[in-house]
């Protein structure tokens, strides 16, 4: 068996298995024959070789990744056929490059071929996805190739970073879809990054929009001063029994005593305690909010700020960006849609603010907090 470095292209049709059970046998056979003929014609046009067909799927090889990527892009434009009585079955295409064994009959074998087939299982219909190896080796003049993320494939030891060609229709649907054999790979964010990210968003939001929001919502902002502390009201014993956390990172310094949290950053400080959040610059207090009297409108404004960034900013608010974290869908690894991001933001604010819950405790509650579980999201590290 001869071993070569080959660019491998695998295709199949989304929804074919279900459609085959509803289609007429003769229509199905004619449909598959036409599909294989079209795939073979495109592959030969770009200098490749159609190795074999497997039901609705095909396996082709090319001498260069550039030819393979061009052929893959042409396949999705020219090989979407309509099965009579069922409807269109969009093609999905996977491209990989690696060492493969070529036997005497011309068939190809090896780990590179297996990875290409696994990748094709996770590609959404109408999309073209490339492995990181193919992305770095190939060239494509149709526009910028976009990074999708890392995925774990059944039978493949290491996670694989996946890229996609731009959608010709501007479709915002994720190019990869989870299945029992394909799962997104991510590293959950540690609790202290989630904590710093949240309070930095409070700081950034309040600093950037404090004057505007304060003027628009001034009837709801209450300047609250804590009651004076009388001698003996806080005993040394009560202070010693309160849980205490102190930590310093390159991004911020965090101190927590019971339900009192202070997050200091180079641009300011946020102090949170039962009933009050205070945002301070190095020179003065920017905003003091008594959230015991917050209206639903104020909670919604901050929740909208978070959800817009999560949905439209690739899962990252300014706080997420500074802490190198992101909010993604637990199944697909892509940012959640706006409505789910909004629900998550409201639940997060309501989880952190109530008195007596402890303003740091929610962030210590495992890797996925209740608002993540209810909205099927997770906070992950992104470097």
Would you write up a description of this structure?
There is one protein chain. The protein has 383 residues and is α+β, with helices and mostly antiparallel strands. The protein has two domains: 2-184, Alpha-Beta Plaits (2-Layer Sandwich), CATH 3.30.70.1230; 191-381, no CATH class. The chain has eleven helices and 19 strands. Strands 1, 2, 3, 6, 7, 8, 9, 10 and 11 form a nine-stranded mixed beta sheet that branches. α8 crosses α10. The longest helix has 26 residues, at 191-216. The protein is elongated.
Note the topology.
Layout (H helix, E strand, L loop, with lengths): L1 E12 L2 H5 L4 H21 L3 E6 L2 E6 L2 H14 L2 E3 L3 E3 L1 E12 L5 E2 L1 H12 L5 E4 H6 L8 E8 L6 E5 L17 E3 L6 H26 L19 H6 L2 E5 L4 E5 L2 E6 L2 E6 L2 E5 L4 E6 L5 H17 L5 H6 L1 E5 L8 H15 L17 H6 L1 E5 L2
Parallel strand pairs: 6-8
Antiparallel strand pairs: 1-3, 1-6, 2-3, 4-5, 6-7, 8-10, 9-10, 9-11, 12-13, 13-14, 14-15, 15-16, 16-17, 18-19
Helix pairs in contact: 2-3, 8-10
Keywords:
383 residues, alpha+beta, Alpha-Beta Plaits, 9-stranded mixed sheet, 11 helices, 35% helix, elongated
Provide the helix percentage.
25-40%
Using the alpha-carbon principal axes, give the shape.
Answer: elongated
**Low-confidence segments:** 220-227, 233-243
- How many alpha or pi helices? 11
| Total count of domains | 2
Strand content: 25-35%
The helix-and-strand class reads alpha+beta
Ends apart, CA distance between termini: 41 Å
Q: Main β-sheet, in a few words?
A: 9 strands, mixed
User: What's the gyration radius in Å?
Assistant: 27 Å
Kindly state the number of beta strands. Answer: 19
């Amino acid at each position: 068996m001869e071993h070569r470095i080959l660019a491998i292209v695998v295709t199949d049709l989304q929804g074919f298995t279900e459609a085959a059970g509803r289609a007429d046998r003769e229509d199905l056979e004619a449909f598959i024959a036409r599909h294989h003929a079209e795939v073979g014609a495109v592959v030969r046009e770009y200098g490749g070789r159609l190795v074999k067909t497997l039901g609705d799927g095909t396996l082709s090889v090319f001498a260069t990744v550039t030819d393979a990527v061009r052929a893959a892009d042409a396949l999705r434009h020219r090989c979407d056929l309509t099965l009579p009585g069922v409807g269109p079955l969009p093609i999905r295409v996977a491209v990989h490059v690696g060492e493969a064994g070529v036997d005497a009959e011309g068939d190809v074998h090896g780990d590179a071929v297996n990875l290409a087939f696994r990748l094709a299982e996770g590609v959404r219909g109408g999309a073209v996805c490339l492995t990181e190896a193919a992305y770095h080796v190939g060239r494509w003049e149709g526009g910028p190739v976009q990074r999708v993320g890392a995925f774990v494939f059944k039978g493949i030891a290491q996670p694989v970073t996946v890229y996609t060609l731009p959608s010709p229709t501007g479709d915002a649907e994720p190019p990869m879809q989870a299945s029992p054999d394909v799962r997104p790979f991510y590293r959950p964010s540690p609790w202290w990054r989630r904590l710093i990210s949240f309070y930095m968003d409070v700081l950034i939001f309040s600093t950037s929009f404090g004057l505007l929001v304060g003027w628009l919502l001034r009837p709801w902002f209450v300047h609250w001063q804590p009651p004076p502390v009388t001698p003996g009201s806080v005993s040394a014993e009560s202070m010693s029994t309160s849980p205490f956390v102190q930590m310093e990172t390159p991004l911020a310094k965090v101190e927590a005593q019971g339900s009192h949290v202070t997050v200091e950053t180079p641009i300011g400080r946020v102090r949170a305690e039962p009933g009050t959040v205070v945002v301070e610059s190095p020179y003065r207090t920017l905003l003091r909010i008594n959230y015991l009297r917050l209206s639903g409108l104020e909670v919604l404004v901050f929740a909208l700020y978070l959800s817009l960034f999560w949905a439209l900013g690739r899962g990252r608010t300014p706080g997420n960006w500074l802490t190198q974290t992101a909010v993604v869908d637990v199944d697909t690894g892509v940012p959640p849609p706006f409505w789910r991001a909004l629900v998550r933001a409201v639940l997060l604010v309501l989880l952190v603010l109530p008195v007596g819950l402890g303003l740091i405790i929610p962030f210590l509650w495992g890797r996925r907090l209740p608002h993540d579980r209810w909205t099927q999201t997770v906070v992950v590290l992104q470097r």
